[in-house]
Specification:
The protein is an alpha+beta fold. The chain is built from 10 helices and 10 strands. Strands 1-4-5-8 form a 4-stranded mixed sheet. Strand 9 and strand 10 form a beta hairpin. Helix 6 packs parallel to helix 8 and helix 7 runs antiparallel to helix 8. The longest helix is centred in the middle third of the chain and has 35 residues. It is globular. The site of flavin-adenine dinucleotide has 22 residues, from strand 1, strand 3 and helix 10. Flavin-adenine dinucleotide binds next to strand 1, strand 3 and helix 10.
């Protein structure tokens, strides 16, 4: 796999080197292994360890804690390149980065100094535990409880759909410290070690796509955590979880753009070689317009996530723009991967080519980190007259 070299505007020579390093890694090591590992439902822990050694798992965090000190516009383009080669790797990286954000952005100096270096060092992987089987879109209805006992808390409950669930080393966990009637205001956030007594993962879900990425329930059976593992104040947990999702949605947008780019590259390559009626099929307008539309839609989605990322880097509100980017990029990836299967005809529908896998993988990006209906709700809320002026 070589694929299109995207002409990127990058803020520094260091960022250009990072993108080149990632492209090289994708071409040589990731893309050649993706098909086989996905078919075998096998998660490549060694690849994640290698990304950690290269510093690619902690790019958007401060260097003083072991991060890469890169702005979101650089981190996200690295993620996009990873997704172009192997979407499972990009998704795991994005979720890991999301799992570190609670401590990085809401932790005390003491918590950052104590926990972040190990979380960002590359040897450990994080999971983000918000959803429950009855509470996905309506995450504020969660039932997992954290009860104050002595110097700490005891966490009990079951989280669902957790990416990296069976393989994570640490978890950002949202749990109820107040009454159910308090809704989202009664939720707090905790950093929990996956090796703590009482933490266990269920069997990996049997998914339509992203089969190499393990997703499972995570059970908390009277798990004791010290009070210094609570992030922020009691009752701030939902805000912390939603702030993490704002940034995470940009990660999902970048994954969607990378996946769609891989589909386009693959289909354009095929269309330039496949002949029908004495011509290569890319000479037929019916095929070349599918490719042209895909190229235009990918470029537009890329610019939208970069726009939201620039706002984040500038310290401006970016919640609405992140929802717009996630909605646009993931709907685009679903359409583009479906259209690129069409370009290949019958060959697109079988496992000899990765197109059918890309199409299956695109589907879940419209669901995770807030379904696209939820993104529309976030955007619509910002349009109401009373929200004007506070709109991000
Ligand atoms: C592969 C995978 C990985 C995941 N990884 C994680 C993870 O790492 N951590 C984590 O915490 N969660 C994770 N999730 C959970 C994911 O965030 C939820 O699946 C998602 O938020 C939707 O929740 P739900 O599945 O319960 O659907 P529901 O909330 O039951 O929604 C069902 C349908 O109703 C729609 N709907 C619901 N409410 C409204 C409304 N108010 N207006 C309009 N439509 C509405 C939804 O859009 C959807 O179409 C993952 C899910 C999957 C499939």
């Amino acid at each position: 796999m070589t694929g299109t070299v995207v002409d990127r505007e990058l803020p520094s020579a260091e960022a250009a080197d990072l993108l080149e390093l990632t492209r090289d890694l994708v071409t040589r090591e990731l893309a050649p292994r993706a098909d086989k590992a996905e078919a075998a439902h096998s998660f490549p822990r060694d690849v994640i360890a290698h990304l950690g050694e290269l510093g690619l798992l902690s790019l958007p965090y401060p260097e003083e804690f072991g991060g890469g000190g890169q702005p979101a516009v650089v981190y996200l383009q690295v993620l996009e390149e990873l997704a172009r080669g192997w979407a499972t790797i990009a998704l795991s990286t994005s979720v890991h980065v999301l799992s570190c954000s609670g401590i990085a952005e809401f932790g005390t100096d003491e918590q950052r100094t104590r926990f972040l270096p190990a979380m960002l060092g590359g040897a450990t992987l994080g999971a983000y535990c918000l959803s429950e089987s009855h509470a996905g879109s309506d995450a504020g209805a969660m039932r997992t409880r954290a009860v104050r006992e002595g110097d700490g808390y005891v966490i009990t409950g079951d989280k669902a759909w957790i990416t990296n669930g069976p393989i994570a080393d640490f978890m950002l966990v949202a749990a109820r410290t107040g009454d159910q009637a308090q809704g989202a205001r009664g939720i707090s956030a905790f950093l929990v070690d996956a090796s703590a007594a009482g933490v266990s993962a269920g069997a990996p879900e049997r998914k339509m796509g992203f089969r190499g990425s393990p997703t499972s329930q995570v059970h908390f059976d009277s798990v004791q955590v010290e009070v210094d593992r609570r992030i922020g104040e009691e009752g701030q947990g939902f805000r912390i979880a939603m702030a993490a999702l704002d940034a995470g949605r940009l990660g999902i947008s970048a994954c969607a753009v990378g996946l769609a780019q891989a589909a386009l590259d693959n289909a354009a390559d095929y269309a330039g070689q496949r002949t029908a009626f004495g011509k290569t099929i890319d000479e037929f307008q019916g095929v070349s317009f599918l490719l042209a539309d895909a190229a235009a839609q990918i470029a537009a989605a890329r610019q939208l996530y970069l726009y939201a990322a620039r706002r984040k880097d500038a310290g401006r509100p970016f919640s609405t723009e992140a929802a717009m980017a996630k909605l646009t990029a993931t709907d685009m990836a679903m359409k583009v991967t479906t259209d690129m299967v069409q370009v290949l005809g019958g060959a697109g529908y079988v496992e000899d080519h990765p197109l059918e896998r890309y199409m299956r993988e695109a589907k879940v990006l419209q669901i995770v980190e807030g379904t696209n209906q939820i993104q529309r709700m976030v955007i619509a809320r910002s349009l109401r007259p009373r929200a004007q002026g506070t709109r991000s």
